[in-house]
Design a protein that fits this description.
By secondary structure, the chain is an alpha/beta fold. It has 14 helices and 13 strands. The strands form three sheets. Strands 2-8-7-6-5-3-4 form a seven-stranded mixed sheet, sandwiched between helices. Strands 9-10-13-12 form a four-stranded antiparallel sheet. It has a two-stranded parallel ribbon with strand order 1-11. 48% of the residues are buried.
């Protein structure tokens, strides 16, 4: 399909500053239509949702529109879309709610591949409930987490499996549908961290088999908050802590306080912006999103090949992203150099490739990188070949400066 990169980049004001952004896994830059939607929401009357005054109707329209947009993006039911402050906050909320149904001796499975936001909430909730945490490991040599790795940790006492759909550190995309099948055969629920995955691949929560799927719009060109998708009938069975006068309706019973209407308006605009990347304007929004992600995957795949070929020419670079199926996100270490120094050197050249463990602490340790992690290079829909070449040139210059290179 046709992918008009120049037109896309022209609609993202932050790119005019000239920085080559490889920090997309930590948050993407914002398109103008998203900024305008946020501004427009705040420029019109707003109040508590209702159907009387203009402010009430505006708020209701924003919330309903955002739920429908996220349902189209995720292949979910709008009645199962829950908004929250962040994916981390939503996971903590749901871990506490689900843990209230667990008993001492029950088990929860987490993986060493995951962001800590899909590990610690479950581990802490399990500890409070007297449950056992079982760890599914991944192969540090290949970066692969298989269904067998999860199956080995399942038992008749497993209540929940928490797993990432894509590692934010090394990009690995585990076989979620297969993991869902064995999880459900064990009688457990599957909670999927889709924060990194949603930015790079089309999502269908039903096809994946996720009972809960959480993501963050600011990873795919939207504003900062979190979204969870689940079947409405499953949400109906859960009783979260809530204020007495607040509604008990689903999904609102999980949304604490007044929603950030302006951010929800921006989220709908981000989904529409992504759908607008489809080469053909026809079809439903869901269909256009599928076509758009086909183009995004092709574009990012071409650039990943270019990047990997360039890195292969740099003998001091070790690439830890090796899974057969993965996002365009590479974790690098540099022989004889600190990646923190490389980050600062590249920043001096207008290239943003951050260094750290990025909250994937268990994965960093399993890779033998301790808490330090490495240099993370993440591609985004707006990344250009020139950006990749600037990164490669900067790394080559850094490696040629000696072990004491500084920015």
């Amino acid at each position: 399909m046709s992918y008009d990169l120049a037109a896309l980049r022209a609609r993202i004001p932050a790119l005019a500053a000239g920085t080559a952004h490889f920090d997309g896994p930590g948050g993407t830059q914002t398109p103008l239509p998203v900024i305008e939607a946020i501004t427009a929401a705040l420029s019109r009357p707003l109040s508590i949702r209702g159907d009387g005054l203009p402010g009430e109707r505006n708020a209701e329209t924003v919330v309903v529109g955002a739920r429908r947009a996220m349902a189209d993006l995720l292949g979910a039911d709008p009645a199962g879309i829950v908004f929250g402050r962040s994916a981390t906050q939503l996971t903590y909320d749901f871990s506490r709610t689900l843990a209230a149904t667990w008993s001492p001796g029950d088990e929860v499975v987490v993986t060493r591949l995951d962001h800590d936001a899909n590990i610690r909430p479950w581990a802490q909730a399990a500890e409070r409930a007297g449950c056992t945490v079982r760890w599914a490991d991944f192969d540090p040599a290949t970066g692969e987490l298989t269904a067998d790795d999860v199956r080995d940790r399942l038992s008749g006492r497993t209540r929940l499996v928490a797993v990432t759909a894509a590692s934010n550190l090394i990009g690995t995309m585990p076989p979620i549908a297969e993991i869902a099948r064995i999880t459900h055969e064990a009688g457990a629920l599957l909670y999927v961290d889709g924060v990194h995955y949603t930015a790079h691949a089309p999502v269908d929560v039903e096809a994946l088999g996720a009972d809960f799927f959480v993501c963050s719009p600011y990873k795919f060109l939207g504003p900062h908050h979190g979204v969870l998708a689940a079947r409405p009938e499953l949400l109906e069975t859960l009783r979260p802590d809530k204020l007495l006068p607040s509604t008990d309706a689903v999904p609102e019973r999980f949304e604490l306080g007044t929603l950030p209407y302006e951010f929800l308006a921006g989220t709908r605009a981000a989904v529409d912006f992504l759908a607008g990347l489809a080469a053909e304007p026809g079809g439903s929004r869901r269909e256009r999103l599928a076509a758009a992600f086909e183009g995004i995957e092709e574009h990012e795949g071409v650039l990943r090949d270019r990047l990997e070929k360039g890195l292969a020419d740099l003998e001091q670079v070790t690439v830890h992203s090796r899974a057969a199926r993965r996002t365009p996100t590479l974790l690098l270490t540099l022989d004889g150099h600190r990646t923190e120094d490389a980050y600062r050197f590249l920043a001096g050249r207008g290239v943003h490739a951050p260094s750290g463990n990025f909250y994937a602490l268990e994965a960093s340790r399993r890779l033998g990188l301790g808490d330090t992690g490495g240099l993370r290079v993440g591609l985004a829909p707006y990344t250009s070949a020139e950006d990749v070449d600037r990164l490669l040139s900067g790394l080559s210059a850094f490696l040629g400066r000696g072990a004491d290179a500084r920015g």
